[in-house]
Structures are given as structure tokens and as C-alpha cells.
């Protein structure tokens, strides 16, 4: 059985979203997080879980749009602008909507990746000189990195599994 680059990207996607093997995937890192826990700020500063998920959703939606051939529109001026949080109106409904958006984007990204051909992976990524395949391969690490951050925040707050 031969394995192609699309297959490898799907393995990475599965491992960074829902399949727990040697890393904690994002869906597991977010399981059972309440709005209050998501809005909790780590001692000494740093982003909340809520802010981190907003950041993940922003960039993953942009990649999904590009994979679908849709112009994602102008980006933000600074990366910090992508870390949106609940503000003063913290509620479970808003948090649950963000989690639902995260799941939708992640599943649609998987579908979009599965629909790619080997030739698609060699195409340029937007106006970049990088290929779609190389950009996706690196981008999988983004979710893994932030899932690790979420686990660390949950450990600090005492909400991570023992």
C-alpha cells in the first residue's frame, strides 16, 4: 500500500483535531471546558483559552477559504488582533458557539484536505511562493502548538485530567 502526501496530511489533521495518540489533540484539550474556565487568565499574563480558540478559528477559517478558492479578505494588521475574548459579557452560550465554530471549521478543513490531489498540493498558496502542501504541513503544527498551550492553562487552573 502506498501512502501519498494527502494521506499524510490527513493523518496530521486527525492527530491534531481528534485522534489522541502521542499528542493531545485540540478537541480533547477543549473537552468539558466551561465558559468560566475558557475566560480564566493565567497568573503572570498570557492568553486565555477563549482568546486562543478565537485565534485558531481566525487562521483556520482563512486557510479553509483559500482551500475552497474563496478570497478570505484582508487580514488583520497584527497577530494580537486575532486573540478575541468574551469581554465583560461572559456566558456559556457564546462559548458554546465558539466551540461549535471550531468543530465546524476543523471538520470542513479535513474534508477540504481530503479532496485535494497531489497536483493541488504543488500549487502556490495564495500570493505566496510557498506550495499548498508545504503550507498545510506546517499549519497542522499550529493547532498542535495551541492545544498544548490549552492543556498547560488547564493544568494551571486545575481543570485538566489527572
TrEMBL record:
UniProt xrefs under SUPFAM superfamilies: DinB/YfiT-like putative metalloenzymes (SSF109854)
InterPro entries given in the database record: DinB-like (IPR024775), DinB/YfiT-like (IPR034660)
Signal peptide: none
DinB-like domain mapped to chain residues: 28-150
Pfam families per the UniProt record, alphabetical: DinB_2 (PF12867)
Gene3D superfamilies given in the database record: dinb family like domain
Name of protein: DinB family protein
